Amino acid sequence: MKSLFSIIFTLLVISLLSSSGLLTTHFAFSMNPSGSLSLNLAGSVVNAGSQQYFIQQSGSIVSATVPSYSVNAGELNYTLEADVSGQSVTGNASFNLQGTLVGGGSINVSASDVRISGMVSAECLPNHDTPNATGSCEANDTSVAPAFFVGKATIQITTSSGTQTLSNISMLFESAYLNPFGASIVLSSIDSTIVIVTPYTQATVTWRNVIDSGTISGSFENTPISGSFTQVASEQENLFTGTANDSGTMTFSSVIDGSGNAVSALDIAVPYSGSSTIPMAGSYDCSASSGFPADSGVCTETGFQSTGRLDLAGRANTITGSYSSTWTIPAWGFSGNATAVVTAADPPSPPAPLVRGNVSWITPNYQGIQYMYPASVAINGQQFSVTFYESLFAQSQLVPGLPYSGYYSGTFDAISGCQPGANITISATVDGVTDSASGTCPAMGVNLSISLVFSTIS
Predict the structure, then answer these.
(1) Which of 425, 391, 409, 438 is CA-nearest to residue 14?
(2) Residue 121 CA to its chain's centroid (Å)
(3) Which of 312, 344, 376 is the last residue of a domain?
(4) Coil, helix or strand for 95?
């Protein structure tokens, strides 16, 4: 809130080439702090967002169990697509196994158009609790990552003896997320009368709007700081290669220094982009905890390693740097670090005003340390509009009734520049008080100084 004082508008007008069609005033204002930023981060996933899964196998199986038959070897064509949102899933699957039987003969086991309508959860968020006996999460969990997709299938088993049809069979399809790098996954009926163990040739997950949150600590220009962060992430993950491309926004909040003072310059949202890999170091077999024989190789818990760039080109600050994060096993929490250089950005030129003439308008801007004033400019009688930006970086030192000198910027939506010798008149209204001043456009590249004076209270 401004006190009663005199504002002296000093417009430093640089005349541009007449062909430019633009007249711009120069200005200065209080920059946000600049300096080096070093952060430690620790957080976890609180919402798994939406996920799109694609799994495909076209090749040899590891093993298969079929009612009344012993399968020796086989080739499998298998595709699954599923969309997960919150605690719901939709999708479809199909498979066709062409195999040979122990003792000779062939067998074909197939199911088409299996509708995916359920899942057994691997992780329940944000509570990170264990799914119940049915594989479901608690009611106050808002999202899940699936271990298995569930669907009803009509399965046909064909041998030399004929074709057998099994209807309404509940099937479990293991997510490749549980066993990366093309390792074995399981397609199984819930009663385990049909079990197919197979590697896969393709598997991807598209993650959208995944939310992580946690704490930050570190230093800004050698001053200790701490605070919180929220990260909204998207990721294209290739489970066959164990790699991913990441992007999103990391938002810092409630940042304070060592004395508890707010560091508002760092309460910002910083875009990031990078890549991740699935390391095998520290991984372990999770087959038993997934309901399979111990060490059967159909489930592997792994971590995640992420690196990338921070890159913010904002109107207040520019931030460039890098980050590195190491995820837990399994990969639902992480710790890491980020380093960056924070540079106070040159304020952008204001957009061309949409109104002409004298308009009274006071709006806090730039974190409350600036005010904007639309005004009008006349060059040889032709009216143009302009917005001035007033810096109040010395507001705490203002004395009511005494002059205060500020600095302003503006962009005229002129058709032609201020040509030498042309008359120029500038007027503005601040808190209902209007003042104007006139002058003559100088030679090219020569500054023109015109002052407007107001006594205002607000």
Answers:
(1) 409
(2) 25
(3) 344
(4) strand
Quick one: DSSP state of residue 431? T
307 and 417 part of one domain: no
165 lies in the same domain as 258? no
CA angle 297, 301, 303 (to 5 degrees): 140
370 and 300 in one domain? no
Instruction: Please state the length of the chain.
Output: 458
Q: pLDDT by residue (tens digit) across 253-304?
A: 999 999 999 887 788 888 889 999 999 999 999 998 888 888 889 999 999 9
In the block, tokens 């111990």 appear at 294
- In angstroms, what CA-CA distances link 91 with 67, 79, 80, 113, 365? 27, 11, 8, 10, 48
Check whether residue 85 and residue 96 sit in a common domain.
Answer: yes
Q: Say whether both 111 and 157 belong to one domain.
A: yes
Please check whether residues 450 and 374 belong to one and the same domain: yes
Q: Between β-strands 5-14 and 403-405, what pairing exists: parallel, antiparallel or unpaired?
A: parallel
Q: Which amino acid, residue 329?
A: I
Number of Cβ within 10 Å of residue 45's Cβ equals: 25
User: Of the given ranges (77-81, 408-412, 428-432), which has the lowest mean pLDDT?
Assistant: 408-412
Structurally, how many domains does the chain consist of? 3
Paired residues of 305 in beta bridges: 277, 326
Of 67, 72, 136, 148, nearest to 104 by C-alpha is 72
Rounded distance between C-alpha atoms, residue 45 and residue 49, angstroms: 10
User: Whose CA is closest to 413, among 376, 358, 448, 440?
Assistant: 376
Q: In 3D, which of 201, 141, 149 has the Cα closest to residue 175?
A: 149
Q: What is the mean pLDDT of the chain?
A: 75
Judgement on whether residues 63 and 183 belong to the same structural domain of the protein = yes
CB count in 10 Å sphere of residue 425:
16
Is residue 357 within 8 A of residue 383, CB to CB? The reply is: yes
Beta pairing, strands 333-344 & 35-47: antiparallel
Residue pair 451/427 in contact by the 8 Å Cβ criterion: no
Please give the residue range of the domain that contains residue 330: 35-47+207-344
Q: Which of residues 344, 371, 397 is at a domain's end?
A: 344
Query: Percent of the chain beyond pLDDT 70?
Result: 67
Residues 9 and 117 in one domain: no
Phi–psi pair at 232, nearest 5 degrees: -110, 120
Distance in angstroms (rounded) separating the CA atoms of residues 340 and 35: 9
Q: Tell me, what's the pLDDT at 194?
A: 95
Question: Taking a C-beta distance cutoff of 8 angstroms, is the pair 288, 315 a contact?
Answer: no
Q: Which H or E run includes 350?
A: none
Q: Is 169 within 8 Å of 194 (Cβ atoms)?
A: yes
pLDDT confidence of 221, banded at 50, 70, 90? confident
